[in-house]
Amino acid sequence: MVNKERLYEAFGEIIYVVAMADGIVQKEELEQLEKMLANHPWAKIIKWSFDYELEKKNDPKNIYKKALYTLVEHGPDKEYELLFNLLEEIAKASDGLDREEAEVLIDFDMDLRSQFLKDLEKNNLLLQDDLD
Questions:
Q1: How many angstroms separate the CA atoms of 46 and 11, rounded?
Q2: CATH-assigned architecture of domain 4-131
Q3: Residue 73 to residue 59: CA distance in whole angstroms
Q4: What CA–CA distance (Å, rounded) separates 72 from 67?
Q5: pLDDT for residue 132
Q6: Residue 124: what pLDDT?
Q7: Rounded CA gap, 18 and 1, in Å?
Q8: Residues near 48 by Cβ (< 8 Å), separated by ≥ 6?
Q9: DSSP percent split of the chain into helix, strand, coil, nearest 5
């Protein structure tokens, strides 16, 4: 399991991937991100990670793999609901959800779930209930 800071850095990374799906991060996407993170305790880490990837103009395909790896290593978390809400709202922020953004959202959901299912089948997955 990865630490919480690295988990939230991965949130910023995957948000960057979705925002870049159409080739450019829109002003409305940035505004939506800031609005939705306004009261989140890890907002600074998420936003820092997003900004870092944006500033470095890193390849979204590589960042996708890196973020997915981190989330899989971390395992299931209740915060993933927030992440998926963030991704969807950010994708919709500029002229609605376009095909490229929808594809990234669907692929991410499927990739994350399939990795968790594989780990569950191998008995390598600890669920939050197992830890309580």
A1: 6
A2: Orthogonal Bundle (1.10)
A3: 21
A4: 9
A5: 47
A6: 63
A7: 24
A8: 9, 12
A9: 75, 0, 25
* Domain boundaries defined on the chain: 4-131
Token readout for 31 is 């505004």
| Alpha carbon of residue 77 to chain centroid | 12
Alpha-carbon span 25 to 21, nearest angstrom: 8
Residue type, 5: E
Unique residue bearing structure tokens 């500029």: 94
* Cα–Cα dist 15/63, whole Å: 10
Look up residue 14 and give its two tokens.
Answer: 């995957």
Question: What distance in Å separates the CA atoms of residue 33 and residue 38, rounded to the nearest whole number?
Answer: 8
- Tell me, what's the pLDDT at 125? 56
Instruction: Give the pTM.
Output: 0.90
| Regions in the chain scoring below 70 on pLDDT | 124-132
Q: How far apart are CA 72 and CA 98, in angstroms?
A: 26
